[in-house]
């Protein structure tokens, strides 16, 4: 979805969005019941999910001797096992739908090493282009909306 500013190759090399510290585990992707069922049936039969509102988050195990949690559907040699069937959170990352002062916003995670170097005008233009789709998805699944975190650049405020 973000291929205008972020190539698949750049993502495949990095994978920072597939790894979480204990302080940013809140960023883990939210999945619907339907997607959770597909993941278990077609990709990881033993995968467990943690309820989050009406949705779920994949259970991730902490790496031994590290404060890191890798996405449960990440194959370290092949990449994401879900291919194009990724959770919506993953398909728009490093953009995030957040709640800020009573409004929904599209914000930019400061963590993506590629997008953070792009001209802000390009990133804002893409966020505006995608805003209807992003806010529509958030309407369907309110659990996608995360609380605003300091450091995230607000690109679009919902009307």
Polypeptide structure, described:
The structure is a single chain. This protein is an alpha+beta fold and 159 residues long. Helix content is 27%, strand content 23%. The strands form 4 sheets. The protein has a 4-stranded mixed β-sheet, with helices on one face. A hairpin with a 2-residue loop joins strand 8 (95-100) and strand 9 (103-108). It is globular, with a radius of gyration of 15 Å. It starts with 7 loop residues before the first helix and ends with a strand.
Considering the chains and any ligands shown, give keywords for the structure.
159 residues, alpha+beta, four-stranded mixed sheet, globular
SSE map:
Elements lengths: L7 H7 L4 E2 L9 E2 L1 H10 L6 E4 L2 E4 L10 E2 L3 E2 L3 E2 L7 H5 L2 E6 L2 E6 L11 H21 L5 E2 L5 E5 L2
Parallel strand pairs: 8-10
Antiparallel strand pairs: 1-5, 2-4, 3-4, 6-7, 8-9, 9-11
Unreliable spans = none
Strand content: 15-25%
Summarize the helix and strand pattern as letters.
HEEHEEEEEHEEHEE
- Quaternary assembly: single chain
Domains, number: 1
| Morphology | globular
Helix content percent band: 25-40%
Mean of residue pLDDT? 93
Overall number of strands: 11
What is the radius of gyration computed over CA atoms, rounded to a whole number of angstroms? Answer: 15 Å
């Amino acid at each position: 979805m973000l291929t205008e500013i972020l190539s698949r190759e750049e993502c495949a090399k990095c994978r920072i969005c597939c790894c979480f510290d204990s302080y940013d585990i809140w960023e883990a992707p939210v999945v619907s019941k339907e997607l959770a069922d597909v993941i278990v049936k077609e990709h990881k039969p033993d995968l467990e999910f943690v309820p989050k509102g009406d949705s779920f988050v994949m259970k991730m195990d902490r790496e031994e001797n590290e404060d890191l949690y890798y996405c449960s559907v990440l194959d370290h040699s092949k990449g994401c096992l879900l291919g194009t069937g990724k959770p919506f959170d993953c398909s728009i990352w490093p953009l995030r739908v957040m709640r800020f002062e009573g409004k929904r916003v599209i914000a930019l995670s400061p963590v993506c090493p590629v997008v953070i170097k792009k001209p802000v005008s390009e990133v804002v233009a893409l966020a505006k282009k995608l805003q209807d789709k992003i806010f529509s998805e958030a309407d369907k699944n309110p659990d996608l909306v995360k609380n605003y975190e300091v450091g995230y650049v607000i690109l679009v405020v919902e009307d």
